[in-house]
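Entry 12.
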Amino acid sequence: MTSVKEQETTGKLRFFLQKWDNAHKAARSHILDNFIESNDGKTEQELELEFSHGASLFLARLTAWLRVTYMYSTCLNKLLKSISVFLSAASGQRYVIEFLETGGVLILLEILGLNHLKEEDKRESVKLLQLVADTGRECKEIICESYGVQSLTEFLATSNSAEAQGDVQVLLDSLGHNNPKHQNQVYKGLVAVLPRDSRRAQRLALQMLGAMQ
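Predicted 3D structure (tokens):
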């Protein structure tokens, strides 16, 4: 039989998810603020305890809302940071896999190509892609096979933010190492940056090309 405590924790999770499902934009924004403040830096085990072993249910809701709202910048930065809580959780590789299975990488790459979105939102997308890449070679391959190199090098060449370009450099450098299937693709993508107008992008591309020799 289910214990009283288990019933209480399950009920708490159900109430939280219903609150999210029924909330409008402003209320969801407030929920995200509280979630980030309360859970940033937690491990997978801690998140599962917090969500009565149903944390994946909330991650799925975050990813679903991202899919339908990212073009309109609806709480986008908070939404990306909330997803980062899951993807950065120690021992939380399962969350990365779940995010991949719902098409999360494609959404992050599309965000980079939308001119009307803020640079800080695009930078947050790059950070999430880095968390995916850090999970292992197979995840690097998924990024590359989703036209990630093209999206990242284009963002590198067009971004006006030195910080964002630095984040892209770290990610492209990661994709170019321990990823033999797509190393040549990364190399060619960096070469294509050299004729572009951004001097900073040219310099970063040259640095990465030198490291790949």
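Annotation: DSSP finds 13 helices and no strands in the chain. Residues 136-213 form one domain.
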